[in-house]
Amino acid sequence: MKALEAYRGFNFEDFVRAKTVAPCDFWVPNPGFIVEFDESQHFTSLRKLVLSAYPDDHPVGFSRDRWIALCEKHDAKDNDPPYRDEQRAWYDTLRDLLPPLEGLQPTVRIYASDYAWCSLDPDSSNDLRQFSDIALQGDELEEKYLALDRLENPGKRWALDEMEQGWDKA
Q1: What is the DSSP secondary structure assignment for residue 106, as one 8-state letter?
Q2: b (16+ CB within 10 A) / e for 94-105
Q3: Which of 37, 62, 103, 170 has the fewest CB neighbours in a 10 Å radius?
Q4: How far apart are alpha carbons 70 and 75 in whole angstroms?
Q5: For the segment 127-164, what is each residue's pLDDT rounded down to a tens digit?
Q6: Preceding peptide of 106 cis, ω within 30°
Q7: C-alpha radius of gyration, the chain, whole number
Q8: What is the DSSP letter of 61?
Q9: pTM (2 decimals)?
């Protein structure tokens, strides 16, 4: 938190306006984890700053090194309001760090530019497998075997549901 405040001089009260975190992109109730869909505006120097400060032993459901590299590549800036980058980095950090502390699985992050996600059909087992292969390729997820089901939430069509170890992805 102090690093975010010091970076451009905004106080915590400037960029933390809500008493609760906004709804996540996707929620998977069983086994219990969040899926976040990150577009380029999430990859800022402030996000890199906080990602670099995560404890090495804290589990995340994405490749932290890749997310840091994407921050360096995009170096996005959103200054409307002026503290928006701090705000986004803070809320992304909460979604990454809090779930495991509450007994949930780590948050899975998907990079929006990895694939034309909307072209996938949630009723197609081939598309579900393709989604899993693309979205869950991070080093931290190598031992996870995941399948997809539709979300019941209108407008949100994908959810991830963990399967038994040893699922044959071929």
Answers
A1: P
A2: ebbbebbeeeeb
A3: 170
A4: 8
A5: 877 777 776 654 344 334 343 343 333 333 333 333 22
A6: no
A7: 16
A8: B
A9: 0.75
